[in-house]
Specification:
This protein has 236 residues and is mostly beta strands. The protein contains three helices and 16 strands.
């Protein structure tokens, strides 16, 4: 059970999208023992708490899209985090877009990051280069954050969770995936999953998959298989 170390919520009941919010707590993740979670305004005001509480993980929830339109651009001030090498986990969730003049290479200064969470704030094709030591990727919106191919990058990627994925999983071939979660995704050939020879845990939720899932018996290291919801078939 996590312990809350600090919390501040300056949002109003009239507009929960505005006003700083932050919560710092202990975490059970092996990638971070203390995490600070901010909304965008909370990060701007309370970002120094990452160093103050010796956090090794932080996340920012961005909500810059209203009525389907981008309202603002996101340009986080990452320079204020002094002990960047201590950070093992980063999350950027919610909806929005980085400012056009924001240099994504600033994330390269967090050289120890092993786990990331992404959603509808696009990093583009830069992700594998920004976080070369990655071991775990939770991608909550494949359309916003997709990659074309690993091409030998992310050689330590063992935990992969994809929501809204569509395409061929062969783009991850070569990664030592041990835990694979697919949510609301479309897999046109179930045998794509067989490229993950090291997979031990496979979870499929509300997906459309073509083929016979009995082929999972070929995954010799698989020890846990969970399928939630009825599997649909992809449209031809």
């Amino acid at each position: 059970m996590s312990e809350v170390l600090f919390e501040a919520d300056e949002r109003t009941m009239d507009n929960l999208m505005r006003g700083p919010h932050v919560i710092v707590r202990t975490a059970a993740s092996r990638f971070a023992k203390k995490e600070a979670a901010f909304n965008k305004e909370g990060f701007e005001k309370y970002g120094d708490l990452i160093d103050q509480y010796e956090c090794d993980g932080f996340s920012i929830e961005v909500q810059d899209v209203a009525e389907g339109r981008l309202q603002e651009y996101f340009a986080p001030s990452l320079d204020g985090i002094k002990n960047k090498d201590a950070i093992g986990k980063i999350g950027v969730s919610g909806s929005g877009a980085f400012a056009k003049d924001f240099d994504l290479d600033r994330f390269k200064r967090f050289g120890s990051v092993k786990a990331i969470t992404t959603q509808d704030v696009p990093f583009g094709d830069a992700l594998p280069d920004l976080f070369p030591q990655l071991e775990a990727w939770l991608n909550l919106d494949w359309k916003a954050n997709k990659i074309k191919a690993l091409n030998g990058k992310w050689p330590n990627l063992a935990n992969l969770s994809l929501q809204g994925f569509s395409g061929s999983l062969s783009i991850f071939e070569g990664a030592p995936i041990k835990r694979l979660f697919l949510i609301a995704s479309t897999i046109k050939d179930v045998e794509d999953i067989l490229c993950f020879k090291e997979v031990e845990v496979l979870q499929i939720s509300s997906c459309k998959i073509a083929g016979d899932v009995s082929v999972f018996s070929k995954l010799k290291k698989l020890r846990s298989l969970r399928i939630y919801g009825r599997l649909g078939k992809p449209k031809e």
